[in-house]
Amino acid sequence: MLLALMTDLHANREAFAACLAHAEQQNVTRYAFLGDLIGYGADPAWVVQTVMDYVSKGAYVLMGNHDVAILQEDKQGMNPTARQAIEWTRAQLSPAQIDFIAKLPYRIELQDLLLVHANAWAPEKWEYIDGVMEAMRSMHASKAAITFCGHMHIPTLYHMTLTGKTGEFLPTPENGIPLSKQRRWLVIPGSVGQPRDGNPAACYATFDTETLELTYYRVPYDHETASAKILRAGLPPALASRLLTGN
């Protein structure tokens, strides 16, 4: 099975459509969406409906912190920009789409693989994996050999030896990486809809469950259109400018 791993779509129709088209060209056989389908972007209804369509064909999907926020009255934990986007987003979604989000799981286990949005130790608390120590904590919290997670918008790969020594590196797009069974791995594909590493191109990854080969991709898309739609929707301008710079 060739699994496409897409996370932090953030209601960005242009980026999501480009990644789906690219994944189809790679002959992907199954999809996993690791949360944050919505928030920030101007096309939440289209993105959620598209994910729903893929789920009906066997795709996996997780709850993200922006997803759960539309179900909560108290959004004090979010910054004002994110909160404004979530309040606008809820009004764009149909009751069926909100019900779909409400039923999303926080974790999915697939044999020796774990899918989470934020981390393995407390996936519903949204703490970040922003370094080796947090990556180690997440890997120790799971028996899975390979964990895939989102939340961090920068593509990163962590590895831990049998003795517990942990390291990280930033992957090069389109170079296959064999994930040795002699190590444990934590894979962060980067964000489809809101890259934050200085490159506006969308991020996602594929994983071959037979060969254990992981490949990261960067997919250029019409970020100028996506940015302009955010402004037309009356959302905070910072959300629009972020798509132009990838920061």
TrEMBL record:
InterPro entries: Ap4A_hydrolase, Calcineurin-like_PHP_lpxH, Metallo-depent_PP-like, Pesterase_MJ0912. It holds the Pfam family Metallophos_2. It comes from the Bacteria. SUPFAM superfamilies: Metallo-dependent phosphatases. Residues 1-211 form the Calcineurin-like phosphoesterase domain. Belongs to the metallophosphoesterase superfamily. YfcE family. This is Metallophosphoesterase family protein. It comes from Undibacterium rivi. The lineage of its organism: Bacteria, Pseudomonadati, Pseudomonadota, Betaproteobacteria, Burkholderiales.
